[in-house]
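Practice set, problem 2.
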Amino acid sequence: MRGSSLRLRLVLAGAVAISIAIAAALLGLTTLFTAHVERQATDALTVQLDQVIAGLDLGETGEVALTTIPTDPRFTRPYGGLYWQVSEGETVLRSRSLWDATIPLPVDELADGAEHIHTLDGPEGQTLLVAERSVTLPARLGGARTRVAVAMDRAALAEARNAFLFDLIPYAILLILVLNLAGWVQIAVGLRPLREIGSRVAAVRSGTAERLGEDFPTEVRPLATEVDALLTAREADVVRARMRAGDLAHGLKTPLQALFGEAQRLRETGRTEAAEHIEEIVGNMRRHVDRELTRARIAHQGRDAHADVALVVAGLLRVITRTHEGGLRQWDVAIPDGLNVAADPADLSEALGTLIENAARHAKRRVLISAEAQDATQPGQIEIRIADDGPGIPEDQIAALMQRGAREDTRGTGLGLTIATDIAEALGGTLVLGATSDGGLEARLTLPAAHRTS
């Protein structure tokens, strides 16, 4: 259950609790009904006991007999389930339903008129509910102390209890289903704030919101408050780290410029090889510094930044087509107007500039630049594609090319793609390289769409 759904655990726990509660209620109701039926049976036996006592009189033989028989037909049907018995000394009068059996009354001392209730064994294996009373007959009947008992088969009580239970079971099942449905609705409503928290966390991650807010129920609000506090602390840490990186990068620019000056002086003195080595090392370091400055700038970028993809690409092509390699290529552009990404135009230019320069350098003749909104597959995302018809890169080398500092040939440091990837990830997007249908290389830069355009 540790990794299961919280909703499922609550539903299962509620279902078990409801089932146990209904079962206990069913048992309790059946017990109460049984006690009620037994009281009713005891009251009925008492009435019948009065009738038997009232029916005692002198018979035709001059002996005590039951001259008025109770009207219930079960008294006359052998083992019919309802019995009476009158005991006076050794003389025992009994109903026809007892046939040749007797009610085994216990040895019991009853005061005159006292009544006891017993559960005794009866004929044919029956269990009897017995009402017994001790009476003193009037003088004309001999004045003897007599024990009068009326009994009924407890099976009738069990049948009434079972019938009551079977009648209740369908309603109990229906009640369980209704309560479980109500519990599921209650859980769904109760967990809705947690779903809202998940949605707002996703909004914060995608950049459409800055904080979760406080408009949550009292029980959930502390969680949202702590998450917002954590976001604030993390943002402050990131800002401080980016500021330190930016300060460090700015601090290195002056010493690097000085090293370039030293390389120039070495070149003037004829030490060309040493000067080239220094310039190569300093060039690599400057690219690293520029990369850190770019990342620091992106970290401070506002959430409402936006850049028109068509305008940025048009500006880049005006520059690249003036270069030797760019001027020899055919540039096909398919970008709709008004397509805006959530990025600063300078950051988008830097990321696309690297990809367009690579395409111009390796294309044979033609480069295609296109962009479209991915509303069907990735809502809120815009994909920019730059494809050339060059020799391409084997698929097993693409992953290695994307590693920090890797390069496809000996020209450059390999930081161009890394910087473009860093910009894409910092803006909440991705950069993926793949092969075109004609064997060339295609770069797919996916960035979040801008929420505000102007």
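Problem 2, part (b): a different protein.
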Amino acid sequence: MSKRLNAYIGIGVSSLLLTVAGCKAPATLGRSENKNVPAAYNTTAVQDSVNTGKMKWKEYFTDKYLVALIDTALVKNQELNITMQEIEISRNEIRARKGEYLPFIGLKGSAGFDKVARFTNIGAMEANTEIKPGKEMPEPLQDYSIGAYATWELDIWNKLHNAKKAAVSKYLASVEGKNFTVTNLIAEIANSYYELLALDNQLAIVKQNIEIQGNALEIVKLQKQAARVNELAVRRFEAQVLNTKSLQFDIQQRITETENKINFLVGRFPQPVERSTATFSGLVPNMIHTGIPSQLLENRPDVKQAELDLVAAKLDIKVAKARFYPSLGISAGIGYQAFNPSYLIKPESLLYSLAGDLAAPLINRNAIKAAYYTANAKQIQAVYNYERTLLNAYIEVANQLAKISNTEKTFDLKSKQVEALNQSIEISNDLFSSARADYMEVLMTQRDALESKFDLIETKMKQMNAMVNIYRALGGGWN
């Protein structure tokens, strides 16, 4: 008997060794990420660890109306609230993964009956089996049971623990995704707000020019009556006034659309947007400290999100790899079972079980291989996405730094151009009044002056946008 038992044990061990040997996983096809960034944003920059991106947004934006809009958006913006629910979904995924490597324990009870055919082996045995002297097995046979059961998969390859760690990384990535949404939301509201201020100033310039051109038209009409100019000059001046008047309606339409864009971002129906009435061209952009490029790794939420996604992808590979190896499960149960409820709690009705099972894939592992290769491919994707996100972050900062420098120089030149054209309007009017200049010179001077004022406001808006965008590019806004 002992020889037969030893033989069975030997066969079982041999089969297990063959199974484990056949469970060898394919080689990992991933690649390492590149975290190297240049030491500075340009070769002439002075390296300084002071970083504007670490400032809180209420310290960076001081306009009370803009601050109120951002505060409202952080509560009511629908996209941000959708992202918050994504975080909740990721948190629940952690809870689900954590429960997988803990024992499952439950209670169950059942009641039923069973009538077997008499002319079968079971039916014949039941007919000839006496429960008590002179009695047959009850027919139909009832069945009652109550008890507890437990199942547990031993995580010998860390498959379940790695799945939970991957879920944690994905949860943290969703948090960084929310932070990135906040950063973009603040930047979008700020850019729209400054665009609204620019449009207000352009509208004021148009109204001012309508008044100036209207006065010039009246002068030309008087000169026509005095036979100093002809009807053509009157019509050209009148056309100029009408063209300028039409501009104000285009600007008013843009103001309405910009206001409604802001209303959408703050999660409310269309309504007037309160804003500053200060002269837009007098706004001074904030002083910017870019820090060093390596700080983007900790400041930018999208970079941190890509890094966490990469961590999760690497853990997913380990989970997929563990599926090639044997899994060990334990199941147990204890309770009572009887054909009569009155017998249910008697000691003779007690039953219990304890079993362990070891299973491993051996033949036709195509589905497991496909999942493993998919995890490899996703990990490589995550590496490229991380590198792309980091590269994009650096380029965004470099572009905005160049824009700040160039728009500052452009604004200085545009200011001088506006000043020169304002003086030329007065000169041309005086020359025209004394018949030493043609009316076309007056019209062209007025047109150039209006365009230059518009360009000056556009340049100032680009300056303010660069101030907003460099803050976002450095990772500011979410903290």
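Answer key, part (b): The first strand starts at residue 104 and ends at 114. The two ends are 74 Å apart (CA to CA).
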